[in-house]
Amino acid sequence: MTVERREEEEDPSQQSTDATAVWPFLRFDSPPRKIYHFFQQFRNRVENPSNYNNFLKGVKWSPDGTCFLTSCDDNTIRLFHLPEEASYIDQLASDYQDSYHSNLVINEAEMVYDYCWYPYMCSSDPTSSVFVATTRDHPIHLWDATSGQLRCTYRAYNDMDEITAALSVSFNSSGTKLFAGYNKMLRVFDVHRPGRDFQQFSLHKGKDGPSGIVSSIAVSPSHSGMLALGSYNQSTALYAEDNMELLYVLHGQSGGITQVLFSKDGNYLYTGGRKDSYILCWDVRNTVDIVYKLYRSTENTNQRVSFDIEPCGRHLGAGGEDGLVHIYDLQSGQWITAFQAASDTVNGFGFHPHLPLAASSSGNRRFSLPDNFEENWNLRGDENCASIWTFG
Questions:
Q1: Is 309 left (phi over 0), alpha (psi -120 to 50) or beta?
Q2: Which of 270, 303, 268 is closest to 286 using CA atoms?
Q3: What is the DSSP secondary structure assignment for residue 14, as one 8-state letter?
Q4: pLDDT given for residue 52 in this prediction
Q5: Rounded to an integer, what distance in angstroms lies between the CA atom of residue 259 and that of residue 169?
Q6: What share of the chain is helix, strand, coil (3-state, %, to 5)?
Q7: Higher pLDDT, 22 or 203
Q8: Structural element, H or E, at residue 283
């Protein structure tokens, strides 16, 4: 496995702001190798025979890279620890059995809308080893990633004094605030004060701001205090975090926004939508026009199909319905390569924070008659699965 120091180039547009950091050197001249594979534990026919149509919805690495989370349609979040030998393992994973079982299974009562790690999570510090999840008709839950216990809840109420669920969640860069997206509204919780205390900001005022559900939230990593909110009304709004002043509204996506993501230096914003084949790149310093478009195969699905930028900030990886992960050079917007990650929709993809690894998740809802129950379970090993890949 090759790891080397990456020096800052003349054009810092997509480079890390920390020029002294050691980042993984990712090679894309040959396909990555699959070193871990998981699929059987997501097909819980024995545990719940009625839930034959379960499928994965996404995967997210922990900030320290020691583990990752998967979300499924059966309202579960699973935590997998990454083995210590993952950085130098040589053998290939088998598509016929799971590499190992999840360390924790978190059972939520309803559909999981969104989830995210505490930004300063460190597995050696149990107090910081937490993540939040928001589910239908329930408050936001803060889960202990070590024990699987519920730490606390953050509750918002509507005008009828009924609990209303957040559709998206994200911590601020310092980890002191929790942003929660609702319909035309953002609520901000103090992380250290769980309960029903929060600040509330109405986003749609007149003709400005997003007029739909806040479906995705991203905080600029440059500590500029800029906050991006994607909405199902096909627009993305940029705000100043300290006073929630509206800065820009970006239009151009042909589908409802499902993900917003800042570049590593915070100068660029990438947006993707449902039933939309392109990820749009915006320069937040000059939002007059789109910088470039990156293709992905998502024109026929309402699924959230996530994308991610590698730690050095030079490349972006995105999945799609074709089962491929496409890699793009962010300085030029040019396609670099693609590799087959699964035989169905790759809905989740994420680069490891500091190793030349990546995680992918695949799956989609399959509609069939109940009398075809047995047929539904004749899925291949590379369908409805999660995999760990090494670029080396």
A1: beta
A2: 268
A3: G
A4: 63
A5: 12
A6: 5, 40, 55
A7: 203
A8: strand 278-283
- What is the Cα 150 distance to its own chain's centre? 22
Query: Rounded CA gap, 188 and 178, in Å?
Result: 6
Which burial class, exposed, middle or buried, applies to 4 when counting CB atoms under 10 A from its CB (0-12, 13-18, 19+)? exposed
**pLDDT averaged over every residue in the chain:** 88
What pLDDT band is residue 107 in, cutting at 50, 70 and 90?
A: very high
Let me know: does 239 contact 251? Beta carbons within 8 Å. no
Sign of CA dihedral 117, 270, 274, 329: negative
Contact (CB, 8 A) for 203 and 185:
yes
Between CA 28 and CA 15 the distance in angstroms is 18
Nearest-angstrom CA–CA distance, 143 and 187: 20
Nearest to 263 by CA among 229, 304, 218, 326: 218
Tell me how crowded residue 94 is: count the other CB atoms within 10 A of its CB: 12
95 contact partners, CB below 8 Å, separation of at least 6: 37, 39, 380, 381, 382
The tokens describing 272, both together, are: 């993707």
Rg (CA), the chain: 20
67 contacts 143 by C-beta, under 8 angstroms:
no
Cα distance between residue 110 and residue 112, in whole Å: 6
* pTM score of the predicted model: 0.89
Task: List Cβ neighbours of 321 (8 Å cut-off, separation of 6 or more).
Answer: 297, 298, 299, 300, 301, 305, 345, 364
pLDDT given at position 262: 97
Model confidence over 75-94: pLDDT tens digits? 999 999 999 888 777 778 88
Provide φ and ψ at 14, rounded to 5°: -120, 15
Q: Tell me, rounded to whole angstroms, the distance of Cα 281 from its chain centroid.
A: 17
The pLDDT tens digits of the residues spanning 207-260 come to: 677 788 999 999 999 877 899 999 999 999 999 998 899 999 999 999 999 999
DSSP 311-371: TTSSEEEE--TTSEEEEEETTTTEEEEEEE--SS-EEEEEE-SSSSEEEEEE-------GG
* CA–CA gap between residue 296 and residue 299 (Å, rounded): 8
Q: Hey, what amino acid is at 61? A: W
Contact call for residues 199 and 187 (beta carbons, < 8 A): yes
Helix, strand, or coil here: 37? strand
Instruction: Please give the average per-residue pLDDT across 139-165, as a whole number.
Output: 94
Do residues 220 and 266 make contact, with C-beta atoms less than 8 angstroms apart? Answer: yes
